[in-house]
Specification:
The protein folds into 2 domains: 82 residues, 2-Layer Sandwich (Gyrase A, domain 2), CATH 3.30.1360.40; 134 residues, Cyclophilin (Beta Barrel), CATH 2.40.100. By secondary structure, it is α+β, with helices and mostly antiparallel strands. Helix 1 packs across helix 2. The radius of gyration is 19 Å and the shape is elongated. It has 5 helices and 13 strands. The strands form 3 sheets. It has a 7-stranded mixed beta barrel with strand order 5-12-9-10-7-6-13. It has a 4-stranded antiparallel beta sheet with strand order 1-2-4-3, with helices on one face. It has a two-stranded antiparallel ribbon with strand order 8-11. A hairpin with a 3-residue loop joins strand 3 and strand 4. Helix content is 23%, strand content 30%.
């Protein structure tokens, strides 16, 4: 990415936000995501113990640093130096993480509806969803909630007009051209298509999540006995 397309702005007394592209328009791009992932690695190396946290999104990166160890001038100069000397990266960068899904019309009540709306069979929907490779574009909404894109346009569906009061942990869902696994029980308005036995967030483990921004995800179908043997729970909606 051309460094002229990056912008650094003050976010708080100890943080900057770096925008990749136009800050006024949301851009979903594998190239931008790969650039952000590579930039994160450069920042970790340059800031070292001065770095408190990095929060990556679709086209931005929040950099939080320790003002006891560096001031805002040093931080901005370091960021600008990194952006002016980008490392080579590939859109296929990041680890490929394979995640199991028990696709089910009982536990994924919108699975049949998505198939009907697309003029496809349920088996075809499962095949399309599980053979597509997704990129982790952002993590937010709740700890461990990874926004994955892009969903095949045939499966794209708007959020529910009335969100559910409770979506179970592990629910696999689609909204617009994004898909995700709910890391914990919470309200939600995405279209549910199945259940995943893999914990998406565990504060007692390092790392806390099986994926991070810039990684790639591919789902694979499992049946109910396999789901249960992997530690999955069956939740009534």
């Amino acid at each position: 990415m051309n460094t002229s397309q990056t912008h650094i702005e003050i976010a708080s007394e100890n943080s900057y936000i770096v925008y990749f592209g136009d800050p006024d328009s949301l851009q979903i791009s594998p190239e931008i995501s790969a650039t952000i992932a590579a930039t994160c690695e450069q920042i970790k190396q340059r800031f070292s113990h001065r770095l408190i946290d990095l929060v990556a999104s679709y086209a931005s990166l929040l950099v939080i640093y320790d003002t006891n160890l560096c001031d805002h001038l040093w931080a901005k100069k370091a960021l600008r130096s990194i952006l002016n000397t980008p490392e080579k990266h590939s859109e296929n960068s990041g680890q490929l993480v394979k995640i199991p899904v028990f696709y089910s019309t009982k536990y994924g009540p919108e699975l049949a509806l998505l198939a009907e709306n697309a003029g496809l069979s349920i088996a075809q929907v499962i095949d399309i969803h599980s053979t597509t490779e997704y990129r982790v574009y952002a993590i937010g909404f709740a700890p461990g909630f990874a926004y994955l894109g892009e969903v095949d346009e045939r499966l794209a569906a708007p959020r529910l007009s009335t969100p559910r009061l409770k979506v179970p942990a592990g629910a696999v869902a689609i909204a617009d051209r994004q898909t995700a696994v709910y890391p914990a029980s919470s309200p939600g308005g995405w279209n549910l298509i199945g259940l995943c036995p893999t914990p998406m967030f565990n504060p007692e483990k390092q790392p806390h999540m099986p994926v991070t921004v810039g990684d790639r995800v591919q789902f694979f179908a499992i049946d109910e006995p396999q789901y249960l043997s992997m530690g999955g729970l069956l939740h009534e909606l």
